[in-house]
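[recover] target loaded
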């Protein structure tokens, strides 16, 4: 959840592979992946010293959040599943 919260607030993320597990993310696009302390520090430094990278990653992460993880998207998916299970009855 913390990664998605960061995406929603346009905060660039450095995470481990395990930390990002289950999310539809791509390294170097939506966030930066680092699995050991030295790599993690280096990726944080890259974000701090490269404004273009920070902006590109934040933009892509926010777009991913809005398109796949925002409440309205989840609500629509849940509604579709309920319609499928219950049938054509009205679900609001």
């Amino acid at each position: 959840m913390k990664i998605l919260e960061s995406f929603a607030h346009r905060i660039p993320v450095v995470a481990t592979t395990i930390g990002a597990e289950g999310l539809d993310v791509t390294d170097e696009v939506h966030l930066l992946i680092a699995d050991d302390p030295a790599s993690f520090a280096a990726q944080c430094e890259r974000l701090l010293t490269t404004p273009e990278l920070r902006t590109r990653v934040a933009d892509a992460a926010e777009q991913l959040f809005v398109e796949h993880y925002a409440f309205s998207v989840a609500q629509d998916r849940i509604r579709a599943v309920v319609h499928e299970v219950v049938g054509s009855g009205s679900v609001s």
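[recover] notes: The domain at 2-86 is CATH 3.40.50.2000 (Rossmann fold).
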